[in-house]
């Protein structure tokens, strides 16, 4: 029986670039949430290791070592050489667009680590899995957690939030892939103010809305230079009924609208599909605690 794990999309409700290290990595301050909308990873014992990719965005992904899923499996085998069957076949259902600012590759790798830990013939400590995740990329540890969190450093410092309101998102992507390094190259100011302090009890939609009003995504402007359709998408999301906040996620080009009810989100998604024919539009609840 295959072992299955979802790979939830990551959305940066706020993303402040607050500095740059000597090694070139940018320092961030971000509020990250995760959605019920997800890729799906499943794995089962096989004669040899292999990856099969299906789903709406399968053709956009490599299925060899260029895929973070394969690198996650390889690193797990090196770290825990006697824990897994001789071969593992991984099936990745790719429902999230590629290079879209949703942490899809990192989420897939994190889901693989969760699957392999469950398949392991010996117990694996959570601390060991998180340490392994950090070697795969800055976003992988937070995707391993997949719950609302405040993130600092280059993404390695993760503080889960004690409370978070039940909210819904509408995601819109113009189906244009964006290179994160290219976006950072266009960022003119790399030392910006951090996010305001988060409320101790962030448990109401109105409180979240007030807090978000004083935040931003510092990568939105440089990404819009590469993908001019981003500002019109954000404007259209902001104009939908019930939208609390609208902006771009991560390094783009996916934009989101935040809503207090499923009904408002689904109506907005319906309207936006009509307006942006050919774009990827999805409504989804956020994952809670």
TrEMBL record:
Q: Which UniProt keywords apply?
A: ATP-binding, Isoprene biosynthesis, Kinase, Nucleotide-binding, Transferase
Pinpoint the GHMP kinase N-terminal domain residues.
67-146
Q: Which InterPro entries match?
A: GHMP_kinase_C_dom, GHMP_kinase_C_sf, GHMP_kinase_N_dom, IspE, Ribosomal_Su5_D2-typ_SF, Ribsml_uS5_D2-typ_fold_subgr
What does the entry list as the binding residues for ATP? 97-107
GO molecular function ontology, one term from the record: 4-(cytidine 5'-diphospho)-2-C-methyl-D-erythritol kinase activity
Q: Where is the active site?
A: 10, 139
Which transformation does this protein catalyse, written as a reaction?
4-CDP-2-C-methyl-D-erythritol + ATP = 4-CDP-2-C-methyl-D-erythritol 2-phosphate + ADP + H(+)
Q: What is its EC number?
A: 2.7.1.148
Q: In which pathway does it act?
A: Isoprenoid biosynthesis; isopentenyl diphosphate biosynthesis via DXP pathway; isopentenyl diphosphate from 1-deoxy-D-xylulose 5-phosphate: step 3/6
* Residue ranges constituting the GHMP kinase C-terminal domain according to the UniProt record: 216-277
Can you tell me which family this protein belongs to?
A: Belongs to the GHMP kinase family. IspE subfamily.
Q: What does this protein do?
A: Catalyzes the phosphorylation of the position 2 hydroxy group of 4-diphosphocytidyl-2C-methyl-D-erythritol.
Protein name (record): 4-diphosphocytidyl-2-C-methyl-D-erythritol kinase
Species name: Pelagibacterium flavum
């Amino acid at each position: 029986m295959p072992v299955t794990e979802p790979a939830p999309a990551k959305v940066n409700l706020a993303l402040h670039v607050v500095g740059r290290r000597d090694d070139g990595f940018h320092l961030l301050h971000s509020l990250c949430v995760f959605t019920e909308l997800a890729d799906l990873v499943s794995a089962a014992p096989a004669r040899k290791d292999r990856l099969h990719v299906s789903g709406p965005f399968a053709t956009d992904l490599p299925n060899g070592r260029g895929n973070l899923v394969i690198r996650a499996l390889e690193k797990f085998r090196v770290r825990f050489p006697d824990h897994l069957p001789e071969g593992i076949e991984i099936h990745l259902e790719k429902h999230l667009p590629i290079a879209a600012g949703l942490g899809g590759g990192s989420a897939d790798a994190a889901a693989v680590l969760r699957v392999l830990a469950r398949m392991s013939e010996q117990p694996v400590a959570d601390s060991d899995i998180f340490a392994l995740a950090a070697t795969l990329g800055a976003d992988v540890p937070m995707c391993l957690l997949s719950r609302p969190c405040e993130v600092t450093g280059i993404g390695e410092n993760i503080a889960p939030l004690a409370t978070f309101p039940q909210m819904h998102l509408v995601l819109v992507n113009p189906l244009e892939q964006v290179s994160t390094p290219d976006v950072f190259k266009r960022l003119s100011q790399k030392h910006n103010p951090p996010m305001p302090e988060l409320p101790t009890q962030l448990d109401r939609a109105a409180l979240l809305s007030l807090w978000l009003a004083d935040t931003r995504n510092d990568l939105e402007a440089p990404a819009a230079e590469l993908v001019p359709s981003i500002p019109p998408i954000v404007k259209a999301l902001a104009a939908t009924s019930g939208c609390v906040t609208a902006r771009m996620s991560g390094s783009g080009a996916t934009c989101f609208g935040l809503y207090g009810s499923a009904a408002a989100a689904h109506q907005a998604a319906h309207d936006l599909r009509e307006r942006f024919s050919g774009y990827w539009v999805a409504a989804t609840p956020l994952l809670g605690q």
